[in-house]
Every structure is written in structure tokens, then in C-alpha cells.
Amino acid sequence: MTDRPQASARALDGELLGRLDRRRPGLLVGSLASGVLVLVFFYCWGYQIANGIGVTGINRPVFWGFYIINFVFWIGISHAGTLISAILRVTKAEWRRPVTRSAEAITLFALAIGGLFPLIHLGRVAIFYYMIPYPNSRMLWPNFRSPLVWDIAAITTYIIGSALYLFLPLIPDAAVMRDRAAAGLKKRFYAVLALGWRGTAQQWHSLEWGIRILAVAIIPVAVSVHTIVSWDFAMTQTPGWKSTIFGPYFVVGAIFSGIAVLMIAMALLRRGLALERFLTDRVFNNLGLLFVTMSLVWGYFTFAEHLTVWYSGDLFEKLVHHVLLHGDFAVPFWTMVVVNLVIPVAVLSFPRGRRPLPTALVGCGVLVGMWLERFLIVVPALSTPRLAYSIGDYMPSWVELGIMIGAVGVFACLYFTFTQLLPIVSVWEMREGWRHAVSGGESGQPSEAAPTSAAASPAAGGGAA
Amino acid sequence: MTAAAQDHLVEAAFESVEDVRSAVEAALDSGVAASQIEVRSPAPLEEGELPLAKPKSRVLLFALSGAVLGGLTAFGLAAGTALAYPLPTGGMSIVAGPPVGVVTYEGTALGLIIMTVLRVLWEGGLLPGRAIRSGRGRPSDFDRHVAEGRLVLRIHGLTESGAEELRELCRPRTVALG
Amino acid sequence: MSSGNGKRGEPRVTIGRRDFFKVYAAAGVAVLQGCRRRDQELIESPARRSTALPGASVWRRSICEQCGAGCEIEVRTVDRLAKKIEGLPSGFVNRGGVCALGHSALQELYHPDRVTEPMRRGSSGELEPVSWEEALETAATAIAAAPDATTIVAGAPSGPLLGLWRRFAATVGTPPPVHWQPADALVEREAARLAFGESTRPAYDLARSDYVVSVGAPLLDRWRSPVHFGAAWAELTADRRGKLVQVEARHSLTAANADGWLPVRPGSEGFFARGLAGLLLGSGTVGQEGRSAYEALYPEAPPDLAATVERCGIDADRIERLAAELASARRPLVMVGGSALEGENGVAAGAAALALNLLLGAVGRVGGVFAGVDFGFEERLAGDATAALPPAALADRLAGDGDSGVLVVSEADPLHGVPGLEAGFERAGTVIACSAFFDDTTLRADVVLPVQTDLERFQAVEPDPVRGVPALLIASPTVAPRGEARHPGDVALALAAAAGRALPWPGFQEAVESALSDAFTATRAAGDDASDPAALPASLIAGALNARQFVRRTTDAGGLLGTEELRRAPTRLPRDGGNDMPSVLPDPAARAAPVGPAGVESFTLIPFESLKLGDGRGANRPWLQELPDPLSTVMWGTWAEVATEDADRLGIQTGDIVRLTGTVAEIELPAMVLPTVRPGSVGVPVGGGHADYGRYARGRGVNVNALLDTDRRVAGAGAFARGDLRVRVERLRRPRRSERPVIYGRGLRQAEEIPVGWAPHVGGKA
Amino acid sequence: MTRWGMAIDLDRCTGCEACVVACAAENNIQTVGEEQAREGRAMHWLRIERYYEGEFPDVRTRFMPVLCQQCGAAPCEPVCPVYATYHNPEGLNAMVYGRCIGTRFCANNCPYTVRVFNWFDAEFPAPLDSQLNPDVSVRPGGVMEKCTFCVQRIQAGKDEAAQEDREVADGDVKTACQQSCPTKAIAFGDLDDPDSEVSRWAESPRAFSLLGDLDTRPGVVYLSGTEWREPAE
After folding, report:
1. How many domains are contained in chain D?
2. Which domain holds residue D88?
3. ipTM metric
4. Other CB atoms closer than 10 Å to residue B118's CB: what's the count?
């Protein structure tokens, strides 16, 4: 009775390794193409450093522009991975297994880019380290009352946590890569990453403990990160920002946009690496349900946010509200509502909508929508200050656009490279899942991670030698 | 028996846990101590799958102490430095509770995470310069089998004859033997 | 830097202060009489080395010559560089205040594109640096060759410097200089001559009045002395004591601050004054004396209310309310100036407005109008030279097709003020420009003689008689001149000498001192006889033993300051006094029809001087270019003020490029749609569109003066008429990015769409 | 203890902007040029806000000079991560240019929008730089700045008083804007001294704080005989 699942697991194992072994020229092309954007990114940033922050379109009163929008956007994206994978791990959702690695990688890279934007944004980036607490000749420590310093604390924690959270489960897979690689540079690279992982019982035991603790610890960190990002706005007196709802609103928005990226990345990986057998329809279905839920929650928050302003008599709040809903920002605002709420709900409510292609397309829309949301948080509030005389406008410069597009390139490049170098699907977690399926098979019910098609599929993937 | 005679090693790769279990059981039956047996698996084994003692871990303890350490450090940074170099704030508090709380919170989490990982690496012998007890973490040609998804059974400290005996025991279900 | 011809240690009396200055400037120690250190109130002796420590502030008194107001200032200098201008708290006119233009004199002084060496147009057609001797010789040769064909244009305000140019003209044998001055100043003098019998700009006792009607006078904008009038306005309106009502087509800064604004139809100001007189006469509150004085000047009955309403475009009840309030005021006062005087009927309009003061009994009364009096130092330096010519005389001199002869332009930019003169300049044989900048006129010059700016020069200024008290203000240079720049007076004297007709003084300072000395002698001689025009009030020379002591005391004290006792009423000359005074004032109703294209899009153009750029003088200072105009909030450019109502009809939005077509030219500029503009009029500030004038002015904005027709004159005043010009307004396009007006209050357009009221909160007390 | 404060009588302000230029001259404020000004980057520390009331021909224009209000409870201060803006013991919101890294957070949290930013390094083509006030630094690009209440003049006033061995008297310190105001619409001095001119003005029944309900406790008091409540444009 155990033979068949056992055999199919073997087959799948072989197939997965085969998929990961196969070099995809598309990936290389992608890396190179995005590498060009990386150059654009650094050229624009270098140009800005050389010439001054004035090469941007920001002005008085719109002191924050694309950089802060992108900062919030990328930090939001970063909630794709760590938070989602942690929640799934903590809740022991079996269908997480093929998802976690790609999600965590998204987190790390998005976070690295997101964390770069505040630096890009600085007027004097050369002395950014003034914000870092360390004993110095200035006899001055950072001002811990500033939400920006909370940001630094939170993002530092989050980026270290995410990196470790990505790295820890990667060790066994690095060992797999090491042991399957021929001797040489490649092997040495994986050997360094694997740190001497052998897969002993003690190692597995400690690792499981570690992952369990990290998963629990990273959730409140992730929540705090985006809450604190929201406090960069909500702690001010600025009409349109001063809102108690911002913390949870941002967290929800972050998870929402994170899932959107995850959906896109998984659809691409599934297609590009032919991982249909692992990133199954069921995974997409489950993620799609989560997605539409977040869309609804986001919609609820948006409604609550604007309802309270609309109902209040506050002159200045109403002004911001006015330019958003009816004024200069009405087009982006209503676009945002459509792509973030109307379309996701319309598409994802149906099982057929929760398939890879539709979810990825919806995800693209949501990405645009969530970017617009950040834009609509930052710019309208700043451009309509209390004293109407200073009302302003904002048009980004080519440098800001270049850095924004370049950042996408940096992300893609990192992600492509990562995919090329390391298993984008966690091998050992899949194996663990199949083992569960094997043992769970005793009751005749294949567990979630066990591909339902596995039984029917011939062991064409080939057993190992 | 001399010491030299007792450093023989048997390595065997298996496709399934069941195979390993029967091999381990056979080995134990043949008088090999549990401490001589090392199983390398491509994925974590569940408790009781093998008739071996469960490994011990103090990750949680270290995680909690890391949290305390991190929290105290962050608190010291946020509150202590402000007091050490007080700047005029125009009547606002120099050390304000909530901001210190936020920073302390993040510090706590950071300390916890870092200590957790360090402890995991420590216990797994993954830190540079530290290996687990006698040969347990050494590389082996059989690691390749682990990478391919098989399990590897390693029995240390055998005499030559004992090793041969064990090889025979394993042979029926094994994929590779050495 | 001059090596100086005096030697240190020589007896002081034989060396002028200017020589001393040269000596010490060369020695690297700028020490001047009249300077004082703030911390010890020390008048430093020129015989000793400076005690000014490096980096220490030294405050020097000076006079602002940015306009003719004559504000006294103190200049903070550190290490011989001027740092900051402040109003002298005891300032004769300004009482500690300075205006935006005054502050910016520093940027004129230190402008990176100053002309600091003499230049001459070489064989290549380019201006090349030459020595002063060569430049003067070239210029003097041209003048001496044809003195009759030489036209001098002097831009200095009335006072000693203009007197010197007049003397120059008389000595060298050229026609009298053309005094390049604002049209409304000239017209105002003529109107005052007609109404009050004295050809000076009247003094208004605004501060002590309780109801002021200003007919077009932009007293809080850029007119005569904004600092003086600003302070006087503050006193007038303090605690809501008095009121200011502005009768002006444009919503100027004055109109914006006035308690009432009557936007009369442009060009109808004189008619309005007559109509107001009619209401006052009918009210029965006017005294018999005023009535007869007025009716003697205007025997014809004034227009009735209906005619006034019809002609001026103001509701009857507003005019009636104004008349009633004016009639019931204790110390009413009527002022006139600005755009009211710039139409072809400007003199008649000005006289009609000023005559209201006769009707109201405001002439010579506290809180009323006084004569604009001075010490006559222009005449004292001019000697018996003929009076200067009005600006329009320049157009007459340049008329025809022949060679325009030699043009000497000193501190004036006629080609920017009246671009229509360009053809005449092109036909000129030689153009000699005494200028600190390559302005539009200097660009055409064959010889450029660099002149010093305010703070570099010895100053002797008769301030605008806004206070009705005469004064002569004198100040020593504050800083060393840049490059080889010279005092324009010294340049005139050097030119005369080079032409072989030397004047009796080596320099401008000596000329002024000589005039002071002569005045002392004349005053001594006149004794108690006050009728001698050459004599000063006796009290001013009291205590001086001899002329030399008087001169020294006067220059040390910073000039001659008259006292309140010298204030007097203007004297209406007897009608049969054998002068050229008309017995009856011209009727402002008789007015030529406005010229220009007709049709629905025909607007009356109101060119005005913004407080930023003035007549264009301020255009080369970055501080002023970047100063938002207080009403339109525009920086760095020229704009057209269009009424909301007109804009809606023509589909014009703020920022749209519009074309204004006049009779002789057209200009394109961005529109500012403002709710304060009188429909049917379009306001455009002058001062933009310089061909050069330094990097901050070059090509910035457009020059609305290009629309002026040089054939149109203010009747009887010899001034170009820039009022009453009709233009066609067309919307051309949305602006390209680089054409958009630079608006400081950018969001105000959006704010209009706000459905709720919008204003800063009234909060609790601090 | 001194608490520097300013009172501005709006009924006296004509909007002539002499103060704006005086401020630029005193404080080495760079002019940014046409292109930058068009982008909304003009750097005036003091601006004259213009508001309209009513419609033609009964339209009224009102002016309000707005500068850093030197708040007692300044929203800009706590948000700066590097203490580049902090509270001076005499009630000024001091800017320490050297510390500023240019996050511009302070400017966003200023309800009066009075902070300006050096988008580029300042340019003063020679010899315009001869005019620069040696008591005031020229700010580098990437740094926030704003009205300082002419802190260099405050310091000079204190130095002078110390030299003469006396306390700083009311009127010893004049800000640049105050000094050049033709209508004397600005008073400056110690708000903690009940006899100072500024304190007396602040006691006026016409006195109010700009956006007073935010309770930023501004050091600038406005005086106006009419309430600023009507819809303005």
C-alpha cells in the first residue's frame, strides 16, 4: 500500500531536481535585461548624488515624492513573503510548501530595495549614517522620538529577520546543491552557503525549532514594520495623514500587494520553470482566496478611512478628501478603487478566476492600484497644505522615473539570479510534504501538498539511479 | 581490540524511512549502541520514526534570552542616550514612553531572531570551527544520496568485522553501501 | 584703482575728501568721514589708520538713489564690502524704512555683469575695452564736432546732478538735456502748475488727514516714495482713524489696501473728479471760499451724476457715498498720480483732481496738500542754463530720416522705456552711454563709460518733496568703486574738459560744494530779505562763520535739512499775472477717443510699475526677479492681468499665452486670471523684456512698452502717453513648460474649486 | 528666561515685500532662478500670502506675512531623526545645518509650510558673493532651512549687552524684516517680558495665532481688526 505513493514521491523528487537543474536561457536573458535596468538605476542615482536632490520633481510643499511612494510600495511588497510564509508555517498549511521560498526571496529583495529608497530620498545621502545609533564625535545620538528612527529600527530588524528566515530553510537546500554539484567553484559556493549541513537528526531538530521560532517572531515584526511606515505619515499633523487607521490599513495594503507580487511571481515560475506539478492549481486557488479576502479588507479600510473624513467637518481634511475624490487626483483614485477592489472581487470570487493566469493579471492590476494608493497618500496630502496659498503640484522628473523603473530591474535581476542559483522551490520542504503524504496515505487521503495528479502521472520524471 | 580497529564506518543509503528503520533496528539488535548510529535525511524525520533517542535543543531558551538582551540594549539606546546627551525639547519629554517602547519592541525581536539563528547554527555544528561530536558532521561521498532524496545511515566506531556484519545486514534494502 | 593725486600728510584743507578716499582706498584702508562703528560711536579720523577690525561691522550712512525719493540708509560694511542696507531711523523721508528696490541696490553694486571699464566700438563692430582717456576723447570729439546735433539724455532725478548736465549742455553748446523721467511725474508737475501755480509735485499730508481720495496715485506701489507713503498710510489708518479710497482702474497694491476701491473706467479719472466736484458742490457742505476758487477754474458746470456713472462705469450709490463721506470728513485730501495721468488727457485729469483740494479747502491745511518745495540745487548747479526738456523731446530730436547726430545717454534706458525710438537710435552717428550695465540702450552705444552705482559714489540728492519740506542730502561713498567706474557727474565734467569746454569744477563733489558755498554767500548777503531766490532760509546758515565752514559742516552733517516751518501752501498765481497760466483749466471730458483695434476683444491696456521691477531698473536683481508680485504672485517674468469675467468669455486660463495687439506692435505673454481686474482692461507690468541688462534680466518677460506709440503724447506735458491704449487680446495656446508663468501661490487656482470656505483660523491668543 | 517672539499687525501690512528682500539679504538666502522657482522651489523664509474676499468690484485683497512661527510645541522638532532641528532654550526652533541629512520630514509636518529646502548648492556668482552676510552660513545643497528670527542679530544684541555689562533691553534686537518695514507692522522682542513691545501687542484684543487650534503655541502673534474667516478665493 505504501509503494505507490512512495514511488510517485520518488518520481516527483527526481522531477523537481531535474527542473531545478535545467538551465533556462530565459532566466539568463531576464537577468541580463534587468541588468540593464540595474545600470539605469545606478546611473540615475549617481546623477542625483552628483547634481543634487533637485534633479527630482519634488518641491515645496510636496517635499516627498516618488522615492517615498516607492519606499512604501516596496516595503509593502516585502510583506509577500515572510509574513505570508510565516503565517502559513505557523498554521501548518500544507500548501505553503512550494510557495515559501519564492515568497521569502521576494521579501528579502523587495526589502533591500525598499530600504534603499529612504537613502535615495535623502538630501545628503553621504551622511545617512547620522541616523544610526553609535557613539560618535558629534556627541549626538539619533532622535528616538522620530518615526524615521523607528523605521530604521523596524526595517533593520525586518531585513535581518527576513534574511535569516530565508537563509535558515535554505541551508539544507544549499547542501543539496552542494552535494549534487561537480567539484569546482560552484560546489565551493554552495558549500559555503550550506555551512556544513549534513542532514543529521540534531541539525534537523534544531532547524525545525529555529524555523518555528522565527516564524512566530517574524509576524509581529512584519506587522510592526508596516505600521511604523504608516506612522511616518500618521504621526504628523498633516491633513490626510493624521489617521489612527493608518497602521492596520498599511499592513493590510502591504499584505495585499505582497500577495499580488507572489501571484505574479508564482505564475511566472510555474510557466517558466514548468513547475505545474508543484505549484498546483490548488495553491493558486488557496492563494486566490486569501487574495480576494485581502482585497475586501482593503476595501473596507479605504471606505472607513474616507467615510470618517467625509462625515467630519474638518476643513483641511475635507480639502484633501475633495481633491482626491473630485479634484486633480480623482482619476488615479477611482482607478485605484477599480483595480484594487472591483476587479479582484469580480474575478477572484469565482473558482475559474483563481487560476494562475487570471490571478496573475489581477495581481498586476493590484500592484498598479497599490502603487497608486501610496501615491494618493503621499502627494495629495502634501500638495494641499493648510494654508491654501502654498497649495502645490508635483511632477516626477526623469531621474525619479529612472530610479523607479530601475528598482524594478534591480528586483528582477536579483530574483532571476536567485532563481538561477538556488532552488526557488524548497526541496526539503517538498520532500517533507511528500513524506507526510506517504504516511498520510495510510488513511487513503492524499494530503494537500501531494499532487493529486501524481498517482495518475507516469513516473516519467524518472527515478534516480 | 585496539582503538584503530574500532574506527570503521559503515555507510548505507536507503530509499525509504522504513528501510532505514529496519536497518537501524537490525544494527541495534546486533549490539551497536544508539550513539554510534547517525542518520542523514533529506527532510526532517518525525519523532518515533526511528528507534533512536530524540535530539535535544535549547533554541527556545536562547531565543528568549536573546529577546531579553535585545530589548534591554534597545531600551538603553533609546532611553539612555537621550538622557546621556539631553537636548532642549521645548518642554516636551526627553525620554518619551511610546517611542522608547517602539524601539525596544524592535530590539527585542531582533535579539530574539539573531540568537535563535546563532543557536540553531551552533547546535547543528554549522558555525565555523565547530563540528559535532566525532565525525558526525564530516562530509561523505554518501551525501550525494541525501541530496537525491535518500536517507543515509552511518554507523561509527565499528570493528572491521562488525562493519562487515552490518553491511550484510543493510545490504538487502540499500541503494548503495560503503 | 586710482593711485590718487594727493599725498598722505599734506594739509587736510587742500585735499578734497574724494582724494583722501582714493589715497586710503589705495592703501587698503577705506575710512570715511561720517562712518561710525556701532559699538563705540566713533567717528574715525581719516588721519589715522582704520580701527575697524577685520570682520567687524562698520555702518556707513548713504542715500538710496534707486528712485528719486531720497531715502537715507545705513549700509553695513564688513572688510570694505557692503553687506546690508537698512533705513536710517532718522531718515528724512523714510524714518528707518527701506523698500524692496532699495535693499536690492547691493545686487546692483555687486552684479556679476556690471560694466566696469570704458569700452569703445572697434573696427570689428564689437565693444572693446579702452582706457578712460581714449573713451573720453572719442566721445568728446564726436560732441565737439557737432554740438548742435548732440542730444543729451539724463536719467538722474531732479537735483544737483541734473543741474550739472544742464550746465554741461549750456557750456558745451548742445541743446538742453532731455530729462528722462517717469511720465506721470512730468504730468503731475504740469497739473500742479495749472491747479496750484507751482510746477512741482505736491506734498500730501496724508498722515494727518482723515479721508484721502487717491485718484490713480499708486502710493503704496512704486510711486514717488512708497516708504514715506506707506508710513503715512499706516498713520492715517491706525485704529481706523482715517480712510483711503482709491479711484483707479487697476487693482493696484494701493487699491488692495485701500478702505474703498472705485475701479473707474481707465481714462475717465479726470471726468470722475469733475463729477465728484459736482456732487460736492451740490451737497451744500462746501465752503464759499472753496466753491469760488473752484468755480473760477472751472466756470462750466460739472457733469451730473448720470453722466459720471455713464462715463466712469461706477455705480451711482458708490459715487454718492464717496462724495458724502468726503464732504463730511474733517480733513479730506485728494491725491492724483499714476495711471490717471498717463492718458493723452492726463494733465487735464490731474488738474481736475488736484483742484478738488481747492474745493475742499485742503490746500495748505494740516492734513491737506502743500507745495513741493526744494532748495533749488538743480538751478544752483545749472546756473543760467535752460531748463531740461521733457522725454518726448527725444522723439522729436530723433524724428525724420536723417542722421540723428550724437546721443549722450546717462543713467537712462530710453530704448527700454520707449522701444519705438529704436529707429532714431540706429540713425545716430555716435551713441555715448554712461551706464553701469549693458542695458537696451547701452547695447547700441559706440562708447560706454562705466558709472558708479549709489553706494560707490559721492551723493548729493534733493529728495522728492513728499514731505513738503526742502532738503539736500549728501553722503560720501560707502565702498570702493568697482573697476574703473566713475561718478556720472565726474564723467560729465571730464567730457566737457575733453571737449575743450571745461566747467569750473574738477569733480561733482566740488561742484556741489561750490554751490553750497555760493548759497551761503547769497544767504549772508540777503540778510533778512527772504525774497532772494538764491538765498537759503537764514536759520540754515546760523552758526557758520564762513562759507568753507558752512560747506564742511553741511557735508559732515549729511546735507541741509529743512524744517516743518518751511512747509507752505502752493501759490495760485494771479490770473492776470502776466505769465502763461491759463485762466481756465482744461476740461478732462474733452478727450481723444482711445486708439487701437476695435471689437469685442478690445481691451484698455494698463501698463503699471510693479514694486518689483519698477520701470525696469530692478530687473537685473535676482532678489527682485524672484520676489513674488504681491498681487499676482508672479516671479521672474511679465504677465497680463485678465479679469475672470473676460477670461471666461475668451476661454483663457491662468498661464495661457495671450497675444496683445496694439497699434504699433504686439506682444505675447502668459495671462493671470484674477478676480480683481476690471473687466475690459488688461494690466501688464513694465520692466520686463530687456535685450540685455545682465544675466538675470536678459530676455526675461516681455517689454510692454513696445506697444507704445511714440506719436501719442500727454497733451501739454511733453510726455509719452501710455494710458488709454486699446489692445486686442487673443488666446494663443496652453503654455509650454518653459513658458508657464512662475507663480508663487500656485495652488490658488485649485483653491477656487474648494466647496468650503477657506481661510486661516482665528485661534486663541498666544 | 527670554522667549523670543514676534507680533505682526496685519492692519498695517501693505504687502510691499520689503521684508522679504530684507530677509534674503540678511540671511544669505539663495535665489533659485526661473526654472527652479517654476517648480515651486523658491526659498523665501518669509512670504506674503494673498487672499481675496468678495467679488468684483467689491473685492478685497488681504495680505498675511507668513514665516516660521517658532512654535513652542513645534511639530517639526520631534520628527527629525538627527536633531537637526531642535528647541533652543530661548524658544527658537533652531536649525543645525551641519546635522541635517535632508529627510524633509520636518517640512511635511509643518502646518504653516514655512520650511524651504536647498535642492541644489547655492550659487552666488562673483562678485554677488561679496554681499553675503559673514554672520550667516551659506547652506549647502540637501539641507533644510527656515526663518531663524535672525538669530545672528539676537547673538549680536546679547554680545553688545554683555560688553556693556547689562541685560538685553527691549528693542536691542531687531529682525531684518522688522527693521525695514516701512509701516512698522512688526514688533519683535521677549514675550516673557510683560513690558516689551511685542508682549504689549500680543495682549491686544486683535491678537490671534495662526491656525491657533493646532495648539502649536506659535512665537508669532498676528493682529487683525477683522476676523480671517471669510472665504478667501
Report:
1. 1
2. 4-223
3. 0.86
4. 18
Residue B168 DSSP SS3: helix
Same domain, B108 and B66: yes
CB pairs under 8 A between A and B: 203
Structural domain harbouring B32:
1-42+146-178
Domain contains B138: no
- pLDDT, residue A453, reads 38
Indicate the pTM of the whole model.
Answer: 0.88
Last residue of some domain: C441, C476, C502?
A: C502
Let me know: does A224 contact B105? Beta carbons within 8 Å. Answer: yes
DSSP string, C512-568: HHHHHHHHHHHHHHHTT-TT-TTPPPHHHHTT--SHHHHHHHHHHHTEEE--GGG--
Stronger pLDDT, A9 or D94, i.e. the higher one: D94
pLDDT tens-digit map of B5-53: 567 778 888 887 788 888 888 888 887 777 778 888 888 887 777 777 7
CA dist C591 and C342 (Å) reads 13
Pairwise CB contact (< 8 Å): D79 & A236: yes
Q: For residue range B146-171, what is the model confidence (pLDDT) as tens digits? A: 887 788 888 877 777 777 877 777 77
Report if residue B50 sits inside a domain.
Answer: no
Does residue C230 sit in the same domain as residue C311?
A: yes
Q: Is residue A189 exposed (0-12), middle (13-18) or buried (19+ Cβ within 10 Å)?
A: middle
Compute the nearest-CA separation of D3 from chain B (Å): 11
The answer to whether residue C47 scores a pLDDT higher than 60 is no
Of B38, B12, B61, residue with least CA distance to A202: B38
CATH classification at residue D93: 3.30.70.20
Does residue D123 carry a pLDDT above 60?
yes
Report which residue type is found at C724: D
d(CA C231, CA C520): 34
Arithmetic mean of pLDDT, C452-478: 92
Contacts with A, D 122-181, CB within 8 Å: 140-144
Q: How many domains does chain B have?
A: 2
Domain membership of residue C135 as a residue range: 131-183+373-451+491-502
**Number of domains chain C contains:** 4
Is residue B51 a part of any domain in this protein?
Answer: no
Dihedral angle computed from the Cα positions of residues A203, A205, A206 and A211, in that order, rounded to the nearest 10 degrees? 120
When pLDDT is cut at 50, 70 and 90, the band that residue A387 belongs to is confident
Q: Judge: B107–A214 Cβ closer than 8 Å, yes or no.
A: no
CATH number, domain of C389, equals 3.40.50.740
pLDDT at C1 over 90: no
C760 in any annotated domain: no
Domain presence at residue D189: yes
pLDDT the model gives residue C27: 42
Q: Does the beta carbon of A328 lie under 8 angstroms from any beta carbon of chain C? A: yes
Query: How confident is the prediction for chain A on average, in pLDDT?
Result: 84
Say if B and D touch: at least 3 Cβ pairs within 8 Å. Answer: yes
> Distance (Å) from the C-alpha of residue B127 to the closest C-alpha of chain A?
7
Quick check: do B and C touch, 3+ CB pairs under 8 A? no
Find where cell 522723439 sits.
C395
**Using only C-alpha atoms, what is the Rg of chain B?**
25
The residue among D208 and C18 whose pLDDT is bigger is: D208
**Residues C377 and C364 reside in one and the same domain:** no
Hey, what domains does chain A have and what are their CATH numbers?
33-132+144-433 (1.20.1630.10)
Best residue in B92, B102, B103 to probe D by mutation, most D CBs within 10 Å?
B92
Measured between alpha carbons, how far is C730 from C738 in angstroms, rounded to an integer?
20
Quick one: which H or E segment has residue C164?
helix C160-172
Evaluate whether residue B129 is within a structural domain.
no
Which pLDDT tens digit goes with each residue over B114-152? 999 998 888 877 777 665 544 566 777 777 888 877 888
